[in-house]
Amino acid sequence: MVRLENVHKSYGEQKILNGVSFDVRRGSVTTIMGRSGAGKSVLIRHLIGLEKPDSGSIMIAGSNIVRMRPVELNKIRRRIGVLFQEAALFDSLSVRENVAFPMREHLKISEKEIQDLVDDRLEKVGMIRHSEKFPAELSGGMRKRVGLARALALEPEIVFFDEPTSGLDPITRGTIYRLIEATHAAGPITYLMVSHDIEGTMAVSDHVMMLFEGRIAAQGSPEEIRNSTDPAVHQFIWGSAEGPLTVD
Predict the structure, then answer these.
(1) What is the reported pLDDT for 242?
(2) Fold of domain 1-79+190-248
(3) What order do you get walking across the sheet with 2-11 strand by strand?
């Protein structure tokens, strides 16, 4: 569903992506982990076409988006949902209007049909009772739920998640991960997350990759990543360059 081949990106002298290559299997839940500042959010912006790499290819559903014109890129984006780190809701629109926005932009259906679809998406994330509230009236977790409902608005083939539980308390993080599992199970969607939340992403992912020094340093099942002998993976997973911390 997603394939990157030798993607490079620098800002001046600072190299962020240094030959990133990977595949994401259709229908999977895949997570790219890495430290803060590792380039995960930069990677997401490339995947949705907000930035262009210095070199390399980015294939989404078989199409290379790097050389696409804006009109072509918009057709691909119609097949993609995105949950941004801060949910990125429109402050001046209610919860209902935020979720309806992409439907009005892309679907040629009646207002009644739009409102029925909005109800369905909000019901799935447990926010139907708050549909008339504005983002400023919502907690961080509630905004993430609305962001997820909007990401699912157009029944996308793939959803990108940029730090889906960043800044949330443990209970709310658990709620978001359960919603991710439930919405993924409800349809044949490919989920690709970037996160530094080890426990949560390990619990919901089929495949895990680690971004380190601009490259994918390791990848495999959650269990394979936990048992990796790579020093960089050990340092990230266990908080120690030597691997799991032990108590004598």
Answers:
(1) 53
(2) Rossmann fold (3.40.50)
(3) 14-24, 2-11, 55-60, 63-64
Give residue 117's pLDDT. Answer: 95
What token pair was written down for 147? 């962001």
> Which residues are registered as beta bridge partners of 11?
14
Long-range contacts of 240-247 (CB under 8 A, 24+ apart): none
Instruction: Tell me the pLDDT tens digit for each residue of 16-69.
Output: 999 999 999 999 999 999 887 788 989 999 999 999 999 999 999 889 999 899
For residue 230, which of 220, 221, 240, 217 has the smallest C-alpha distance?
A: 217
- Distance, first Cα to last Cα, the chain: 46
What are the tokens at 140?
């961080």
Question: How sure is the predictor about 100, in pLDDT bands with cuts at 50, 70 and 90?
Answer: very high
Which SS3 state, helix, strand or coil, does residue 16 take?
Answer: strand
Is the pLDDT at 246 greater than 70? The verdict is no
Q: Which two three-digit tokens encode residue 75?
A: 């057709």
- Region of residue 209 (left: phi > 0; alpha: psi -120 to 50; beta: else): beta
User: pLDDT per residue over 183-197, tens digit each?
Assistant: 998 878 999 999 888
Q: H-type helices in 137-197, by residue range?
A: 140-151, 170-185
Structure tokens at 205: 């992912």
Burial class of residue 144 (count of CB atoms within 10 Å of its CB; 0-12, 13-18, 19+): buried
For residue 110, give both structure tokens.
């009646």
**Cα–Cα distance for residue pair 205/147, rounded to 1 Å:** 20
Would you tell me how many other CB atoms lie within 10 Å of the CB of residue 101? 17
The residue-averaged pLDDT of 127-137 equals: 96
As a whole number of angstroms, the distance between CA 196 and CA 166 comes to: 9
